[in-house]
Hints:
Pfam families: DUF3243 (PF11588). InterPro entries: DUF3243, Uncharacterised_YmfJ, YmfJ/YflH_sf. The protein is 72% helix and 0% strand. It is mainly α. The chain is globular. It has helices at 7-23, 28-45, 51-62, 65-79.
Amino acid sequence: MSVLNNFQEWKNFLNQRVEQGEAFGMDKEAITDVAYQIGDYLAKDVDPKNEQERLLKELWDCADEEEQRTIAGLMVRLVQGGEQQH
C-alpha cells in the first residue's frame, strides 16, 4: 500500500522525512524547498489518491510559485504538529 493512499500515512511519511532532514542539519528553508519540489512533482505527475490530496492539488494548481512555497511550508508545519515558524 502506498503512503499516498491514506492522508494520515502521507503526513507521517512526510514528518519522518522532515525529521531526517533536520537530523542531517538542513534548515527550515531547505526543508521547505524540498517540500515544494515534492509538492510540484506530486501535482504534476501523481493522481491524488484521496480527498485531501485532491484539495491540495487543486490549491497547488491555482497558486503561483510564491503561494505554492507557502503551501509547502504549511505542510511541513502541519506534519510537525503545527509548531510556529518565526
